[in-house]
Amino acid sequence: YLFLSPLMQDPPPLDEPSSVGQLTSKVVLVIMDGLRDDTSRIPGVMPVLNDLRARGAGASMQSHPPSFSEPGYATILTGAWPDINDGPLFNLEYGEIPAISQATLFSVTKTAGIGTAVSGYYWFEELIRQDEVDRSFYTPGEDRLADREVVDAALPWVEDPSIGFLLIHIDQIDYAGHHEGGPQDPAWNEAARRADDLLGEIVQRMDFQTNTLVVVS
């Protein structure tokens, strides 16, 4: 780890715009925490996600140890596995989480002069440097009620033209895995269906002629 980590310490400057040009006016990244690939492919449980998969592009991702949430978030935000990003290697308590010092989706977006927003679990408040976030909502809750608040906060930002990158973190599937019997319990699929309904609300606010939606677990 000490040998590999310097590879990420000094990212190249991002002052120059890409020669490709802007391909989309907004990117909405939805993290469905804890969602299994097999659950995601049941049309009766997640019809919205399966419709999106049929209309767009989809892939199965192989996770990389350690299998904790905070290393997973850091990997999504940096694009680098835990052995070369400087996110936590296991879950730390709120108040103990260091901000990621390397380039992230938020730092790259802010450097490009594009507005950012995040709505989700309060671990993101510490993982993401808050000077890189223009709008935010954080909650210590993880269940369906917390997800309702998260999506309610985020929906206006989906339509706000000043926000070019928005992260929405939906947590109740992971909550069902930890506290409601796991994937073998009917509560698991019920949580996945509710999460899919929330995704549908986000989709309804988006214009896919100009917007891009990315859904990951």
Give your account of this protein's structure.
The protein is 36% helix and 15% strand. The protein has 217 residues and is of the alpha/beta class. A five-stranded parallel beta sheet has the order 3-2-4-1-5, with helices on both faces. It is globular and about 45 Å long.
| Rg computed from alpha carbons, rounded to a whole number of angstroms | 17 Å
Question: Which secondary-structure class do the elements indicate?
Answer: alpha/beta
- Total number of β-strand segments? 5
The biggest beta sheet reads: 5 strands, parallel
Q: Which strand order spans the largest sheet, edge to edge or round the barrel?
A: 3-2-4-1-5
Helix tally? Answer: 8
Residue share in helix: 25-40%
Global geometry:
globular
Give me some keywords for this one.
single chain, 217 residues, alpha/beta, 15% strand
Quick structural gist:
The chain has 217 residues and is of the alpha/beta class. The chain contains eight helices and five strands. Helices cover 36% and strands 15% of the residues.
Q: In terms of topology, how is this protein built?
A:
Layout: E1 26-32, H1 37-40, H2 47-55, H3 69-78, H4 105-111, E2 115-121, H5 123-127, E3 135-139, H6 144-159, E4 163-170, H7 172-179, H8 186-204, E5 211-216
Parallel strand pairs: 1-4, 1-5, 2-3, 2-4
Helix pairs in contact: 6-8, 7-8
